[in-house]
Amino acid sequence: PKGASILKTNLEVIRNIYQGDPAQIANHLQAALAPQFEWTEAAGFPYAGTFHSFEEVGQNVFARLATEWENYRAETESFFDAGDTIIVTGYYKGTYRKSGGVMNARFAHIWTFKDGKIVKYIQNVDTKKVWDAIEGR
User: Fold this and answer.
1) Measuring CA to CA, how many Å separate 67 from each of 72, 97, 121, 129?
2) pLDDT confidence band for 6 (50 / 70 / 90)
3) What is the structure's pLDDT at 78?
4) What is the pLDDT of residues 43-88, one digit of tens each?
5) Cα gap 45→65, rounded to integer Å
6) What is the 3-state secondary structure (H, E, C) of the chain?
7) What's the rounded Cα separation, in Å, for the pair 135 and 120?
8) Against a cut of 0.85, is the pTM above it?
9) What phi and psi values does residue 48 have, to the nearest 5 degrees?
10) Which of 20, 38, 124, 134: CA 20 to 30 A from 60?
11) Does residue 68 come out as left (phi exceeding 0), alpha (psi in the -120 to 50 range) or beta?
12) CA torsion sign, 42 to 46 to 48 to 52?
């Protein structure tokens, strides 16, 4: 029917989050997040922590990635659809501005949905490769 919104599957919502420029990615992510959610960056990652608002994630993670890295990106490899859980694997790439170190670190992101919205995100990453880039090794 005219004017009806097309519901996206959880997998389509997640695929969308990884596409576009940083502003588009942020918009897609913000639209997909539930009002209350838990966002966990891996222990050992430079931006480690658990956050509960889009502003916290933006300030503690995305703003730092944008300013501390050149050409930072999450290149996806595979998407696994387990209904209310979507798992994404790939590599973080970029160059750390202060050291010139180049990052190529494997990641796995686990996204959990409830009622069509993201309620939980868990980052798993090879933090040694991230720190090697930061330290210019």
Assistant:
1) 10, 8, 23, 19
2) low
3) 98
4) 999 999 999 999 999 999 999 999 999 999 999 999 999 999 999 9
5) 12
6) CCCCCCCCCHHHHHHHHCCCCHHHHHHHHHHHEEEEEEEEECCCCCCCEEECCHHHHHHHHHHHHHHHEEEEEEEEEEEEEECCEEEEEEEEEEEECCCCCEEEEEEEEEEEEECCEEEEEEEEECHHHHHHHHCCC
7) 31
8) yes
9) -60, 150
10) 20
11) alpha
12) negative
Spatial separation of the C-alpha atoms in residues 10 and 84, rounded to whole Å: 7
For 30-51, how does the pLDDT look when each residue is reduced to its tens digit (9 = 90+)? Answer: 999 999 999 999 999 999 999 9
Give me the sheet containing 102-114, strands edge to edge.
Answer: 49-51, 33-41, 117-125, 102-114, 85-96, 69-82
CA 19 to chain centre: 11
By residue count, the chain amounts to: 137
